[in-house]
Here is the input.
Amino acid sequence: MPAVQFHRPYLTGTEEAHIAKALASGHHRGDGPYTEMAAAELRMRTGAATVLMTPSCTHALELSAMLLDLAPGDEVIMPSFTFVSTANAYVLRGATPVFVDIDPGTLNISVEAVAEAITPRTRAIVVVHYAGVACDMDELGSLATQHGLRLIEDNAHGLGATYLGQPLGSLGDLAAVSFHDTKNFQCGEGGALLVNDPELVQRAEILREKGTNRRAFMRGQVDRYSWVDVGSSYLLGDILAAMLFAQLSAFEEIQSRRHDIWSTYQAELAGWAAEHGVRQPAPRADSTHAAHLYQLLLPDAEARHRFLSHMADQEVGCAFHYVPLHSTPLAARLGHRRDLPVTDSVSARLARIPLYPDLGSAELDRVVHAVTSFTP
Ligand SMILES: *Cc1c(COP(=O)(O)O)cnc(C)c1O
Here is the structure.
């Protein structure tokens, strides 16, 4: 293990007490008291009217794809610069992912590229708020409205961030959140689907409950429940919801620690970055970000390669991001054709440095020293 780990899942210290309470409650399956408490926190944080807790962000994305009723040949536009789950969810429903390029500044999906990629087969636009920095939601929303498309936020990075004062996750028809242990708030594996279009709520509840109207039954709205649609089991167990509730209860503390570390990097690395042509993160001036990760863009692929081995020598864990989806064997099988020069360039040059709430000040100094002792 390096002296400074790239990632370390954070614990607030209150998880055990909440988990013990969930164990003692006798309600261990999904949709128990802690599920409701975690969902209530998320409704408060995001303004989403309906929050459905899921076993992962991947599952929340899959639910979003089921709600679109996609047919083979339907197209879903998304960035190539993302995690596989963004695309898998729609491919599983038979749709064709249309990978488009990103903006070199925000590293988010390019609005011009989306506009160019829309065809009569397009059904939805899926956006990723990379590093918790908001996409151009006004422009993307207009495009979606103009062409009758669904707009979905993969908000795995952006819980707690805003776009022009509005919470990320509240801007698409649907939004997916992750509570994987690498994310800002974690319960090992977990997620949520935020349903912002009221017309989708009832069906989302049914698909998540094995295609039954059990939720309506539990609320006393129908006198028995039955199989009314297709579906699967996308519930988060209440024990994990208890762990998540502990984390969400420490929202401000977690975010302020992450922002402190992020801001220290931004200040301490500025001179070195400017001198060597390294690009620091450039969050939007009009919105807040989520301090989800801290990335550096090295001048070229060769410098990134040397940077990662230098950091390994210095015993500081670092990581690249992402293997662009359009360059993968599956994308080739799905017939991807477009050139995505910004995505290729960014993914070949990007390196992430450690960022987690309990990164100590000696560790932080060690990271800063290791970075600034590198000459690209
Ligand atoms: C982490 C992540 C996911 C998947 O989240 P899980 O909760 O692990 O399923 C999806 N999209 C993006 C952009 C992610 O970073």
Summary: The mean pLDDT is 97. The chain is about 40% helix and 15% strand. The longest helix spans residues 251-268.
